[in-house]
Q: What sequence folds into this?
């Protein structure tokens, strides 16, 4: 039985190697879009994201892995033969320690015969030891490269929660910890049942809530405006749920569905914007315009309806997206037709807007539902359902009269 488990592990490694080879071929077949359009790697990632139903970052990771395996064929061969699994593959490819490609290949050749019997941590330590032996001045160089990778990421979690992670320089991270510890300690008071972790989390969120509510950065300057509005939280909630008549969930832009009680709490101190929907279809109704740029009310309606970029699986908040015409705006019809309407505008992030504008992907609106239908360069089609305000009726299933 143990040998069967090991055999399936080797099969999994082989399958991952074959998938990476096909990803690399897909990238090679994609023609670069005219500048400043998407690169072949981006175009391939868009297709993988849509077909596999994964995040943009997950698709980009597959493309990056394929490129790295092309650069380091010894590692690719070891994966295909089942000598190493994906965890060890990523350690060998990602843990570069600032070595030049030729030096890294030499380290791989030295370590691969032993990699099967090493744990991931042991393999990483062996990589570090070999790198330091090749380059004694590596520490300073490694820090500069690591500092360039600093980032903040947000990942939706469970039950209306999210993870916020930051990769920072060690002293900056310690400064953040010291600040949060100090505020959490000062906030402790008789009758306060919160744990230290809970007080630190509250201090963290209060810091950004305060800055966002004031609309200012740390230097006192105004925050930049998106879609004619300063940065803000957007929660969409049905009137019945808002009034406590039912418990239909709300929609928090950038996150997704949230419980009714949380949506009401978010909306309690908010500025409200009424969205009127068609009683039959549930689609938001808003006035159009003949001009290319939408008015403030129409822009807000599009942002509220879409919530995020309307590409398959993209979670970029609509407030930070372009408002894109589908079908494209025709200047020749500007004097006679209202081309800028709620049913012709969609929120699209700059990357996916570029994929559509350069004709790498095609997109059209499905009139009965309002959904976006995306067509990949391969001919695959994907449907991105339009968001409907909580409490709105579903789209009709019957044909229009006379049936």
A:
């Amino acid at each position: 039985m143990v040998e069967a488990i090991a055999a399936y592990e080797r099969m999994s490694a082989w399958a991952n190697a074959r998938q990476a080879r096909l990803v690399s071929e897909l990238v090679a077949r994609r023609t670069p879009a005219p500048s400043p359009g998407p690169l072949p790697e981006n175009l391939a990632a868009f297709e993988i994201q849509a077909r596999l139903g994964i995040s943009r970052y997950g698709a980009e990771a597959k493309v990056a892995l394929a490129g790295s395996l092309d650069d380091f064929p010894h590692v690719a061969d070891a994966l295909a033969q089942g000598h190493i699994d994906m965890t060890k593959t990523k350690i060998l490819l990602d843990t570069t320690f600032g070595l030049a490609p030729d030096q890294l290949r030499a380290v791989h050749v030295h370590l691969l015969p032993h990699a099967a019997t090493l744990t991931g941590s042991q393999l990483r330590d062996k990589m570090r030891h070999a790198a330091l032996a090749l380059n004694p001045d590596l520490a300073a160089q490694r820090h500069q490269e690591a500092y360039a990778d600093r980032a903040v990421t947000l990942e939706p979690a469970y039950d209306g929660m999210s993870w916020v992670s930051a990769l920072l320089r060690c002293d900056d991270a310690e400064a953040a910890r010291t600040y949060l510890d100090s505020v959490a300690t000062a906030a402790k008071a008789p009758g306060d049942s919160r744990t230290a972790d809970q007080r630190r989390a509250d201090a963290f969120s209060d810091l950004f809530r305060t800055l966002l509510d004031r609309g200012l950065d740390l230097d006192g300057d105004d925050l930049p405006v998106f879609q004619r509005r300063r940065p803000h939280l957007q929660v969409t909630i049905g009137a019945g749920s808002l009034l406590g008549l039912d418990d239909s969930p709300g929609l928090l832009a950038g996150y997704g569905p949230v419980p009714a009680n949380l949506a009401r709490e978010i909306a309690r101190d908010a500025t409200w914007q009424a969205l009127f929907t068609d009683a039959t279809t549930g689609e938001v109704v808003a006035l159009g315009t003949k001009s290319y740029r939408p008015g403030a009310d129409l822009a807000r309606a599009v942002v509220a309806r879409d919530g995020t970029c309307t590409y398959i699986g993209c979670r970029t908040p609509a407030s930070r997206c372009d408002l894109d015409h589908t079908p494209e705006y025709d200047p020749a019809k500007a004097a006679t037709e209202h081309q800028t309407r709620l049913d012709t505008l969609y929120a699209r992030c700059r990357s996916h807007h570029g994929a559509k504008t350069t004709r790498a992907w095609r997109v059209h609106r499905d009139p009965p539902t309002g959904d976006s239908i995306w067509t990949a360069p391969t001919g695959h089609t994907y449907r991105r359902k339009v968001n409907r305000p909580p409490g709105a009726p579903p789209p009709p299933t019957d044909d229009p009269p006379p049936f």
